[in-house]
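Quick one: structure tokens for this chain, please?
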Amino acid sequence: MEKIIILDFGSQTTQLIGRRIRELNEYCEIVPYNKFPEDTSDVKGVILSGSPYSVYDPSAFKVDLSNIRKKFPVLGICYGAQLMVHDGGGKVESASSRQYGRAMLSNVDSGDRLFRGIKENSQIWMSHGDSITTLPENFKKIASSGDLEMAAFRIEGEKTWGVQFHPEVYHSIDGITLLENFLDICGTTKQWSPASFIESTVQELKKKIGKDKVVLALSGGVDSSVTAVLLHKAIGKNLTCVFVDHGLLRKNEFENVLSDYEHLGLNVIGVNAKEHFYKALEGITDPEQKRKIIGKGFIDVFDNEAHKIKDVKWLAQGTIYPDVIESLSITGTVIKSHHNVGGLPEKMNLKLCEPLRLLFKDEVRRVGYELGMMSHLLKRHPFPGPGLAVRILGEITADKVRIVQEADDIFINGLREWNLYDKVWQAGVVLLPVKSVGVMGDERSYENAVALRAVTSTDAMTADWAQLPYDFLAKMSNEIINKVQGVNRVVYDISSKPPATIEWE
């Protein structure tokens, strides 16, 4: 399959470059800057990402690009552009002030293939501390921007370009046009689509798995659900799914999800393991410790159920591309550990099957629709693997779970009734480890406080708090306080990511 290779130098928007290329129906792969694939028979072009480093930083990621530039069309973005200039003998200097945010293109070379269809004064997005001040020999300026003389260049005699802005970012108005122009330069066919993915993946699964049996851990979320339906299409009854209720799901979610899976024709085993998890979590307040206990507990319960199925040879997981990219992180930074089914392949001695490992979240949904899955399954908000454990600050108890489940049920159903659910990326209720004084029925109360959390996002890498209507929030507060025993105060979280995260723990 033809592909574009994106060399990752550590930019926060590297995944966004990949998503934009996929949106243009071209397949791409993101690899660490120093891991260029040995087999290049299907490579059509290369994109160099940005980086948190300056080219002069001793810790900067450096790689010899000379052979790559001679063989493939290359587009350097921000740091990628500066690296080529620096290596070519040009000058990259610290700007007097960091250039961040909106800017406008000027002096655009309209005859250049990369800027075809892009007009003067087109808005772009800047994010850099250094600037290119002098271009090497054979480098030609093709655009400026305000005080930035060298906003874009090309290398004469090569199919190599560099831009100091970020075309992958939404705020770069013609950014998608620039990327599409680069794909045209690469001579791509743009045949990547959900339908083509399903066709090729089903054939690949049939060939790889044959008549072997596969077990899959279902979570009720989009990724594992689409994985299940895709595998069912390929191997039918040889797939067995296990759905573990760790007692930290939303209200009635265990029963509702099992019903949905039954409609899909999947073979699903439901396991009620609430007491197992509640006992393991007794007295635990540290967020990371809670996550690890839940992760280990899930592995133990799932492994026990899976061993009841005879002759299983494969373990399937709903791993998606961002998970793969993060596991290959070149910076090594971990914000928090994530509960999936990590550790299961080693424990169970099974071969691993991850049919969605090349897809971004939005692509997973598109594949689900192509498979004919129900809309409410595919439009579900993301839900953390540890479930409500990361929305109960402090120790987990059955009564605290009840409070969050009931308050969350009112909030989520309210979003649906007010037609706000699909406008929000993720929402939920957080039980705070504080109590407050209130007056209920002419009597003094001293009860729990909960926080409503709702954010808008496109990929969860960044998120803004959802500006929900005041009358909606007032109604939710009133209903939760009146209907959920143990709550007398409701607050609304207006923190964005960064600096906050979407979940509280």
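The chain has a mean pLDDT of 89.
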